[in-house]
Amino acid sequence: TAGVFLLARTSPLLEFAPYATVIIAVIGAITTIFAGTIGLVQNDFKSIIAYSTCSQLGYMVTICGLSNYNVGIFHLFNHAFFKALLFLTAGAVIHALANEQDVRKFAGLQQILIFSYTALLIGTLALVGTPFLTGFYSKDVILELAYARYSVAAHFSYLLTCFSVFTTSYYSFRLLFLCFHTNISQLSETNSSVLTPYTRKNNLEHKNKYTNIYKQNAKAHDADWVMGIVLLILAVGSIYAGWFFKPMFIGLGSDFWNNSIFIKPNNGIMIEAEFLSQFVKTLPLILTISGALIAYLFSITWVSGAYQIASNHLSKVYLFLNQRWFYDKILNELVAYNAYKIGYDFVKIFDKGLLELLPMFGLGLPKFLKSIYIKLGATQSGLIYHYATIMIIAAMCGLTMLCFTNIILFLDFRIFVLMVTCLLII
């Protein structure tokens, strides 16, 4: 988030560096799809929301790279409401379930954690850009502006962010369905390996009930009134903040930003975005609904089929995404390891051998530097009048150089050369 703010504040510089903005837009779009695809296969409650945050930051960086900094800050502002709501709701649910975070072990919490379910539902709908909720007023504008900008980088960013709309919808509703709508009997009949021993033991007893093992063994309970007030405030912001603040942040003719943000006139495309086709404007909604339906299919109605697809047909893709595109492996083994190796070799060759052999007045470089240090240290007498004398001499030399420079600037350069030549001859 600080990076998005920094991009907006440096807009006067970025507007005159077109290649830099192209790189920013492309990196933001790649970040969006990178985090979104990783979130598809995460099973930790907080990890899903965290990768969602990274994906949404990609939206903000992308639109800043397309010279619409006000829209990026607006999405940052809106995102704060529903993402804070999601994270705090996650904390409430995890606390209620005795610190359990694996969503594969959740089931049927809708009847137990009613308030938390409502808060998570509102946050999810706002995150995926449901019409007339907070996320809709900034997320859809980002997509429309990316499409309206006639450049290769903008259209590349538009395609990636559109796909990210689908992934966001899928993992958000997958989280919602696995935690609150899935029945224990559905999970145990398809893949019992993802359940806790308590769940498998009591499955027959709770086969047709949505109240699950957590209510009997973990004493699951909803958030108390202190947390409830906070969730309620954030839920209201997740519903109304986008509609209320849109005219101020990105409204045509708004003077809210004054000189804080600079956009070159030929980069302003807010008006062009209003005349896009109806298909372009409704495409994000279509992708959102598609992601929700597929999440419902794979999480509730066809869990066994989804498990078979992930384990057999798309096992390598699943492994690639589950290992975060092997980003950590590449970073550790190719970048960090080689950097440490180069540093070790540099120290071994230079610091512990080669520098000792460099001739410096018959001494090695370390001994030469040490001799200079000793000689300079000898000049420090510790007497105040010595230091005062040095300061006066330095000030006089500085004033002399200043006057000499002014004389040079005042006289013609050729006259100055003639004077110096005469002095040398004399």
From TrEMBL:
Q: Where is the NADH dehydrogenase subunit 5 C-terminal domain?
A: 220-401
Q: Where are the transmembrane segments?
A: 16-41, 48-69, 81-100, 112-133, 153-173, 225-245, 285-307, 383-401, 407-425
Q: What is the topology of this protein in the membrane according to its UniProt annotation?
A: Multi-pass membrane protein
Which Gene Ontology BP terms does the record give? ATP synthesis coupled electron transport; electron transport coupled proton transport
Query: Entry's InterPro entries?
Result: NADH_DH_su5_C (IPR010934), ND/Mrp_TM (IPR001750), NU5C-like (IPR003945)
Q: Which GO terms describe its cellular component?
A: mitochondrial inner membrane
**Record family assignment:** Belongs to the complex I subunit 5 family.
User: Which protein, by its recorded name, is this?
Assistant: NADH-ubiquinone oxidoreductase chain 5
Which species does this protein come from? Ulva expansa
Q: What is the lineage of its organism?
A: Eukaryota, Viridiplantae, Chlorophyta, core chlorophytes, Ulvophyceae
Per UniProt, what is the name of the gene that codes for the protein in this document? nad5
